[in-house]
Amino acid sequence: MLADGTRLVRIEAASLDGPMVGKFVSAEKFERSLPVGVSLADFVLASDLAGTPQLGWWGDWRRPALGDMVLRPDPATAVVEPGGTVSVLGSFTDREGTPLPVCPRSLLAAQVARLAALGYDVRCAFELELFVVEESIAEARACGFRGLTPLGGHDPKPLYVTQRAPEYLPLLRTATERLEQLGITWEAFNDEAAPGQFELNLAPTDPMTAADWTVRAKRAVREAAYAHGHAVTFMAKPFAAFGSGLHLHLSLWRDGTPLFDRGDDAQGHWVGGLLATLAGATSILVPTINSYRRQVDFAAVPTTATWGEDNRGVAVRTIRPAVGGARVEHRLAAADANPYLVLATVLAGGLAGLEERIDPPDPVTNLPWGTPEGHPRLPASITAAADALAADERLAKALGDGFVEHWAESRRWEWLMFHSEGADPDARDATDWELRRYFEWV
Amino acid sequence: MVVRDGDAPLLVRVLAASLGRAAAQPKVARDLRRLRGRVGLRSTVGPQAATIDFAGRVVRVTHGAGPDVDVLIEGDLETMGRPGAAKPKVSGAVRHPRLALGAGRVLDAGPPGGWRGAVDMLWDWAQGDDGRPELLRVVCQDDGGEHAVGRRGGTRVEVHGPDWALVAVFTGADHLGAALLEGRVQVLGDLPELSRFVGLLTRFMLGEDGGR
Fold it and tell me: Which residues on A lie below 8 Å from B63 (Cβ)?
């Protein structure tokens, strides 16, 4: 599959917590490994972001003595980067080529296949929010990611400002060039609510491409920032002011027709399914200790299991433009969530709604906070969310018991590490433990 | 009865679970019923702190240790009880001697029968938990004493260590994973069995229901 002259192949995949893992291999080694793929130690999927092996449970997909799994390349994802390196994304399988039940890309592929079997397909796009800081990544590491200055300083500022463009446009130009080199179609880049915070909008596409683009876009932005002497983070809340999300826009199609445009029952059932699985989905969409610092009322972040038309306070916002383009914006995912898992979970929820014809509750027409009647709250901590996921039979059926158990236990492990490694449970903002653990890796 | 908040931090969960198990001993239960007052525990090496409110039939463990506690115990809560560990600093003991002494007694209340008793207590608690191996063999490295529970012929985990480390692990005062990685105990067993057993001991430490 490689062109003549290729010397280096970068094969990688998103691990459960998000970091891209894989190998750089010679062209000869890569060709020899096909179609199976290259071997990696399976504890890549059973160790935390500090590299500590997670103990306390066991999935049958694991080999008993830190054995191998395989990173199987998807040739459709191959891109030739400047300099000639071929970059390929892949999925985690066992040595016989069977997808592992905890492989994020395979979990998404399974939900896409379920949709296709019912005659549906989906177009979707992620919005990535991120923070750029004045310091370089080396400077940021040297101070444990503490005391950094967001690009433009700490002072509050208006939203969507363009007049600071001279400070950030060179970086954005580099980032968009990198996106294009990686074959990613992007639509917009804008300044966001907090100092140093930006949003990148990717173009609508099929679910697998949307997730592939997202993990590669994070890489592109990171590399662009590094090239300009800045560090970047996709942490949900590295600073006190505002958090970063990973909003997902999605429309459902059948036979080339967008169903949400024509007010089909499918939209109601889709939303009904999303709401019915939202508490369990929280664990996957709001994955880290730091993610929960973003979950505060009156900050345009969903904290309730609600939906509404063009309502940025709810978890599921329906959007019906004047002409075409009707879609659902799922607003719960934090910026540190794994995009494959986000999409797999959202599709699983929507599919449950279609299959069971779940009707949504009444829409919320006002902000869902501070009202006398109140609204159902989403889990507010990593352990409460893990318990909600473990109790969600629909998500367990769709995503598999093996994944759900592994994920829920890994979140309880995250809680245990936070508390047992000296982090302050009373801290109002990101602790040193969170900054060291997440700043560079999510 | 020992109670705590549902989503409490680690120290609160560990203390509540430990006191709850100790309360199963009639002598400790008697002490708990008689004690009145608020005892704070505060780590001198980290931010962990908790308050135990002894109020007769109900003992409440809460997060944080404010200035309103009657007795305050400060020290390295992780190493407390290990050989050579510094003694904790106790404030308020002169004004509240019975509370300070009584709280010390119930907090130090080891299981009857030492490490063997701790193993038996854990084994009983773990009935139905999928982390329980079919055979658990424990070896005390101080005197070579052995204790095995369960039946031979199936999954098996062995834990070896000095008396104090075994007591800590099997009473939930120490985490088996940390004790293993930091060399306080050694284990024998397949990695899958060992990992599940760590999970069982974690649930025991946190006071969760057995039987997962």
Answer: 425-426
Question: What are the tens digits of pLDDT across the range B46-87?
Answer: 999 999 999 988 999 999 999 999 999 999 988 887 888 888
Which residue, B107, B125, B146, sits at the end of a domain? B107
User: Could you report the per-residue pLDDT of A320-362, keeping only the tens digit for each?
Assistant: 988 888 999 999 999 999 999 999 999 999 999 999 999 999 9
For A360, residues 6+ apart whose C-beta sits below 8 A from its C-beta are A268, A271, A272, A275, A307
* Pair B17, B74: CB distance under 8 Å: no
Give the CATH number of the domain where residue B26 resides. Answer: 3.30.1050.10
Does residue B119 sit in the same domain as residue B198?
yes
- Is B212 contained in some domain? no
Q: What number of CA atoms fall less than 13 Å from residue A112's CA on the CB side? A: 20
In this structure, the answer to whether residues B188 and B155 fall within a common structural domain is yes
Determine contact, residues A205/A213, Cβ cutoff 8 Å: yes
Reading the block at residue B178, the tokens are 């940390």
Select from B72, B107, B142 the last residue of a domain: B107
Instruction: Please name the member of A58, A419, A422 whose beta carbon is closest to the beta carbon of B195.
Output: A58
Domain count within chain B? 2
Q: Examine the domain organization and report whether B178 and B122 are in the same domain.
A: yes
State the residue range of the domain holding B75.
Answer: 2-107
Interface pTM, i.e. ipTM: 0.92
Q: A65 in contact with B at a CB cutoff of 8 Å?
A: yes
**B interface test, pick of A42, A55, A424, A426 with most B CB neighbours within 10 Å:** A55
